[in-house]
Amino acid sequence: MGDHSFPKTSRLLRPADYSGVFDDVQIRVPHRHFLILASPNSLGRPRLGLIFSKRNLKHAVQRNRVKRVVRETFRHRTDLGSLDIVVLGRQNLATQNNQALHQALDAIWRKLAGKYRASETGNGPSG
């Protein structure tokens, strides 16, 4: 059985960590229910930050469920490189069941990994 933890080394912890991504967005992956912003880091591993507002997910139960699914799908990805990643929730996210969230996030992580590889090799735009 694999490691199912989400250690502090895999998280964006401080406001400065989030600001670093927002100030230097190099990769954007838009989706109907999510917006992924990412910028390279020098740590050799990806880090994840989550932003889900009460405006889009009214109840704490909904926010916690979506965050849990995002973290779970993130942990299973090994191809995200050295990126600081911020996941923002969009409207109508609460209407999605866990299976739909998993499918959407798997597609988003694949797209992000592809854009990261393209930016590393210098092939094509990353935004």
TrEMBL record:
Query: Which EC numbers does the record give?
Result: 3.1.26.5
Identify one Pfam family in the record: Ribonuclease_P
Q: What is the top-level taxon of the source organism?
A: Bacteria
Entry keywords, A to Z: Endonuclease, Hydrolase, Nuclease, RNA-binding, tRNA processing
Q: Which reaction does it catalyse?
A: Endonucleolytic cleavage of RNA, removing 5'-extranucleotides from tRNA precursor
Q: Which InterPro entries match?
A: Ribosomal_Su5_D2-typ_SF, Ribsml_uS5_D2-typ_fold_subgr, RNase_P, RNase_P_CS
Q: Which Gene3D superfamilies does this entry report, sorted A to Z? A: 3.30.230.10
**Mind listing the GO molecular function terms for this protein?**
ribonuclease P activity
* This protein's record includes keyword Hydrolase: yes
Q: Does the keyword Heme apply?
A: no
Group of enzyme by EC: hydrolase
Q: How does it assemble?
A: Consists of a catalytic RNA component (M1 or rnpB) and a protein subunit.
Q: Give the function comment from the record.
A: RNaseP catalyzes the removal of the 5'-leader sequence from pre-tRNA to produce the mature 5'-terminus. It can also cleave other RNA substrates such as 4.5S RNA. The protein component plays an auxiliary but essential role in vivo by binding to the 5'-leader sequence and broadening the substrate specificity of the ribozyme.
- Family that this chain belongs to: Belongs to the RnpA family.
Protein name per its UniProtKB record: Ribonuclease P protein component
Species the sequence originates in: Marinobacter lacisalsi
